[in-house]
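Deliverable D5.2: sample structural annotation.
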Amino acid sequence: MTIIRTPRGQARPMRGMIVFIAALVLLMIFMRIIGLVTDWFWFQEVGYQTVFTVTLLAKIKTGLLFGAGFFTFLIVNLLIAFRLSRVPLYGDPAANFGNPIREMEPAVLKVLIVAGSLLIGLFAAVNGTAQWENLLLFLNPTPFSVQDPLFMRDIGFYVFQFPFLMHLNGWLKFVLIVTVAATGFLYLVRRSFLFIPPRIWKIAPAARIHLSILVAFFLIWGVFGTWLDLNELLFTKRGVVFGPGYTDVTTQLWVLKLMMGLYGLAALAVLFFAVRPEWRIPAAAIVLLILVSVLGRGIYPSLIQKFQVVPNEIVAEKPYLEKNIQYTRLAYGLTQMEEQEFPTEENLTARDLQKNHLTVKNIRLWNHAPLLMTYSQLQEMRTYYKFTGVDNDRYTINSEYRQVMLSPREISYPALPSRTWVNEHLTYTHGYGVVLGPVNRVSAEGLPEFFIKDIPPVSTTSLKVTRPEIYFGENSNEYVFVRSKQPEFDYPVGDKNVYSRYEGTGGVPLSFLKKLIFAVRFGSITMLLSDDITSESRIVYHRNVRERVAMIAPFARLDHDPYLVVSPEGRLVWFVDGYTTTDRFPYSEPTPQVGNYIRNTIKAVVDAYDGTVRLYVSDPADPIIQTYTRIFPGVFKPMAEMPEALRNHVRY
């Protein structure tokens, strides 16, 4: 045995590198813990601790499932190989000839086995936490009460359980490949397996049996993987049809079932090789499996599609097109459409106009883009105010139902007069007010008329704004502090400014420890050293309304354009539409960035002053929202609990 000693000068860089990597890993873990702690503070503030705890526990479970599973399977097989390879291939004259791998001390090798398995297990655990949502869906499926037309299985299986099974299949295949490679390498290091190209190939009986069992297990698992591929046919697109068409139904069904049988036969052949070292039988079985896969899944269906389907595509694909249309309508909720004719009449009279006075009075004349520019020129008042969009809405104003256009006045942080830390996080904490006017009125100068305008808001109608401050909006910065020693800018009056002090319930109360934690979270030493932040101060973060809703409902696809509403009490509240989507609805035609199923199931309401978030279910019949309602109990409320005055502003 040859012992190689490393000079001290070469050992120091190695030791330094190990210390650096360990410190980097510890820093990453520390920052992750800081992130979790501050997220917990935020969920406590908004009253949705259930979302945090359910999500965190699900991530821990998936991390343990995939990390501990990988570690256990790998280290058990490596330790078995370590034990079975104690006696090398001595007695063979070629055993030590030309072997480039030097024999390693058993104790050192064992430490490397444990450390390597643990490191791989940690990576698998971190990667596995991303499957927390799929695990929860797998454990809480809701039937759609609609079956797919090919396998007659409820669609809920494909939406809730199939994605997790697909990941599990890919994960276990990867585990087996890594384990076979690592175990084979260990046998090679321990000289129970000898390979000197091109002809010298020796393997100890124990190593042959062990590796054969692992390969056979991989092939047996291939039966399950092929069964998943069989179900995956429902989401393929070979021709004009999304979902299995003529070619898939007539060729792939029986080919995949044949391959399931061949996987089983190949596994038996490999187990036979474990008993008798005759490599030709398992080799023939595996070659046959590969041949059927190449011909049956690649060449054969391509020939059928090109020479049999394409020349007579309409006739061949007609029944599958009908299924595509039927299931697309189901997936997009278009099964109850009604067609109505509205004949055009050219005998309009003044009496007709008087009879439809309310409709005529609400015909929109203003276009959003020029109106936004006009609002900006007339009502921004200061360069640091910004109108980012114009929304349409309807209100009962002076006892009349009127269509209006409105826009919130938010702070534009890049346009502040001086972008100091104090200005951005202590002084300029909120926007102020809205402009609102009718959709059909134009002044003599060609400008829009206003029902609400100026700073502070001036109203010429029964609709009033009593709480104009906008702490939560579309333009908000990362975080601000309220109730600090620094006065908060409220609004300008001529050459002077009016300041205020926050009176709401939003934000996380601070202590010195929390101040330290948030300074680490946001990477701000100024925050830690500032004397303006006291024990009465609160930190307000996740101020963007879409981000705020997304934290509570991470599964929902949110509308890109929240809209602002003036409540009867004069408060400003944001509405955000949320959609449940999936790309696992069989035969339904997919849409880019949406999938092939969508329902407008969530109406989120966010108070612009204190950040209170309420989530309401607008489509309780949707199976996906039913599942999430069970996963996150108490988070979603029925629409009947939304105040009626706000319900009038809900868009469908």
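Annotation notes: The two ends are 79 Å apart (CA to CA). The first helix runs from residue 8 to 46.
The annotation will be released with the project's public dataset once the embargo ends.
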